Write a sequence for this structure.
């Protein structure tokens, strides 16, 4: 049994992360997080939604609300997208955000902007160690083909579009994602590599909505590269809109 | 008079680069480059097409052909996009390319891939000094608004879509571009800045087509930040399909 070490009673039902290439089953995925506050962190009481292992979820969020994304088991990358509530052709853009905050990675206080240069999300709090990637594409079926997979493999691109569809929405493209908890180190001469997570169980990133928006997540099903840990175990994660 | 110092007789008609915010006029824009070979560089005889100052151009290219993009006056950033010939929803993707060659910037020999992970262009030759950006969004009207411009400002996003329209094509989004000759230095701790060009007049980058494709360029009209040089002078550039 995987013991969740962050003392979150709400997470007891999540002690059996889906491993390997198993599919995460749809379930009653909203619970109340009565104790989502490891020592030294800000307490919160809000409904928690499961992002099932290897699957996506989306939600509507109002301006001023915060979205806490919890790395429940500590090693799970969560691909994250945001779209303007009224127009899914306006989305959080990593290329516009880099031009806005002039960094290769965000830090607390940095705002992401849309492809129309409007602030959409601000990284308001972060207990994860701060490794979040804004350079790499979401994984997709063709990516797994290049990695030697034959047949279908769960992937973040499909998870995004399925999650939007559950809300009755569609997006005209797959924007470059904010890869929460994904550790992509760079060297001074510009080499990139697939790092292991630095986050810990129960750590989280909190994003403040700067406009009414739709947020979408995918618990990345990457089990070949070490981005979800060298054991290739993919797990669920959780989020709460506060 | 701006003297073009690379000894290209073909470029004599280009000795009056458009400056400031003037619009580049459409003209008879194809000439033959009989001497596009500064000392030590590979000679070429091929029709040259002008990318007018502050404007875009697109062209169809067959697999195996090369596209030489000439920084005619030495300081002009050229935003570059490529789309699969048969489907403009498949495009050259900077986020997928970074995952493919695992670098923050391309070098000779590196191939860019599409959002379906297929190689589309390879950087085959480069005499420009090698500063090409793959991190920053194309400029757009909203970007100039943030920079204090009131009213319309030429921009690369509009130039892309206008150039495609001239070929009877449309793209469903504005992909993150390959910004040829654009110098965006990074620091070891991930800070980015707007550098001045390191390229020289007549220097070029040569891209090999790995599939039948449509290539699109915009001579970037950025005259506020120093990416086209501190004087804010925007000029034409040229390309040839070899």
């Amino acid at each position: 049994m995987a013991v969740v070490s962050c003392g979150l009673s709400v997470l007891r039902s999540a002690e059996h992360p889906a491993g390997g290439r198993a599919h995460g089953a749809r379930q009653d995925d909203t619970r109340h997080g009565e104790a989502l506050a490891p020592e030294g962190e800000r307490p919160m009481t809000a409904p928690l939604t499961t992002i099932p292992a290897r699957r996506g979820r989306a939600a509507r969020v109002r301006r001023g609300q915060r979205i806490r994304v919890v790395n429940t088991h500590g090693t799970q990358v969560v691909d994250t997208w945001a779209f303007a509530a009224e127009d899914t052709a306006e989305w959080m853009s990593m290329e516009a955000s880099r031009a806005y905050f002039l960094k290769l990675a965000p830090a607390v206080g940095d705002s992401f902007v849309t492809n129309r240069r409007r602030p959409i999300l601000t990284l308001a709090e972060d207990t994860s160690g701060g490794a979040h990637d804004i350079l790499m594409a979401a994984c997709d079926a063709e990516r797994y083909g290049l990695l030697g997979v034959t047949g279908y493999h769960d992937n973040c691109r499909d998870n995004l579009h399925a999650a939007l569809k559950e809300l009755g929405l569609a997006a005209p493209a797959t924007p470059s994602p904010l890869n929460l908890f994904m550790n992509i180190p760079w060297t001074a001469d510009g080499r990139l590599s697939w790092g292991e997570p630095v986050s810990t169980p129960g750590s989280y990133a909190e994003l403040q909505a700067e406009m009414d928006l739709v947020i979408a997540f995918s618990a990345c099903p990457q089990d070949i590269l070490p981005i979800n840990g060298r054991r290739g175990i993919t797990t669920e994660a959780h989020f709460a809109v506060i």
Summary: The helical segments of chain B are 94-101, 141-146, 156-166. The first helix of chain B runs from residue 94 to 101.
